[in-house]
Amino acid sequence: MESASELVPFPLLMTPIESNYRACTIPWRFPSDNSRKATPTETAWIDLFLNSIPSFKKRAESDPTVPEAPSRAEKFAQRYQEILEDLKKDPESHGGPPDCILLCRIREQVLRELGFRDIFKKVKEEENEKARSLFQDVIRLSDAIEDEEKRLENLAKGIFAGNIFDLGSAALAEAFAKDGMSFLASFQNLLARPWVIDDLDTFKLRWGKKLWKKAVIFVDNSGADIILGIIPFARELLRRGTQVVLAANDLPSINDVTYTELIEIVAHLKDDHGKLMGIDASNLLIANSGNDLPVIDLSSVSQELAYLSSDADLVILEGMGRGIETNLYAQFKCDSLKIGMVKHPEVAQFLGGRLYDCVFKYTEVSTS
């Protein structure tokens, strides 16, 4: 169900005057650039979105909910390609100049205009089922780690291992279609630390010394990401007495988990007493973020999320789209954590890291 209420700024975001907030981490253009000519960065990113068209077309072709899906999928591919080529010729066409938000929004608009509402629904359901079957084993392995800091590091690595299930990356979508993805293999094959941005040791120190009363987590993908990565981490926060708000998309976009899907997932993971493997989950809340993209502009979130977040003292943005590409440098009025895997070469190059490198960026706000 779509949110009908007016969107509002996320209340913990520093005001634009204080932080000059813009939901775009990588500068695609500068004031001195020719407004009628695409910059090299814009061209590179447009090409990245062009390369993703075949995987989106393939998913759309097999959507059983859409009449004449193959022909409509072909129209999607042609129309979206034409728009991207137009933006290369004139970056101010189609609402430009382009950035991640605009390119994602146009792609979703074209899909929806052709009747496609959730082309990744089937694969999300399959991956959620697989991940649910592993949930208890993942929790048992985590709980068996007695040292709190080592357990935290294990949970953080679990988030990265789950986050690789991202069908918005053309390379990962192709790999997934060919071989599927194993959470355990992804966990074991994470790039060694130090990662490209690695504040994990600092976070572990603060973890042992302070308790956050409420954490808001902007979640990312379905499957292993949410079930084997984020929910075990949220459960650990609950164990410590922190109230946790999981903020999920209003509408489907790629394989991101939606608000309604997340409610169902958590209901399946809880036992008859409302517990997550022995931990009381009454302080686990699920909110509709008001977002409908795999990236997020925090100047526009749902009123529900704004209300639930107003007194939080920890904000976590998870995933490459939300935590890296659009909000890596976003400033908040409370502690914040940006965590995600780098799955685009363009992002790796900008950060000076490696493809499939990890970002764990912790910023503490002084309360004095």
Structure description:
The protein is globular and about 55 Å long. A hairpin with a 2-residue loop joins strand 4 and strand 5 (279-280). The chain has 368 residues and is α/β, with parallel strands linked by helices. Helix content is 46%, strand content 11%. The longest helix has 23 residues, at 121-143. Helix 3 packs antiparallel against helix 4, helix 6 packs across helix 9 (200-207) and helix 6 (148-163) packs antiparallel against helix 10. Keywords: Hydrolase, Manganese, Metal-binding, Nickel. Residues 52-359 form the Damage-control phosphatase ARMT1-like metal-binding domain. Its cofactor is Mn(2+); Ni(2+).
Keywords:
alpha/beta; Rossmann fold; 11% strand; globular; At2g17340_3_helix_bundle; metal ion binding
Question: What would a concise description of this structure say?
Answer:
It is built from 14 helices and nine strands.
Quaternary structure type: single chain
Mean pLDDT over the full residue set: 92
Quantity of strands, as a count: 9
What's the CATH topology name of one domain?
Rossmann fold
CATH superfamily annotation of one domain = Uncharacterised protein PF01937, DUF89, domain 3
Radius of gyration, taken over Cα atoms and rounded to an integer in Å? 20 Å
Identify the CATH architecture of one domain: 3-Layer(aba) Sandwich
The secondary-structure class comes to: alpha/beta
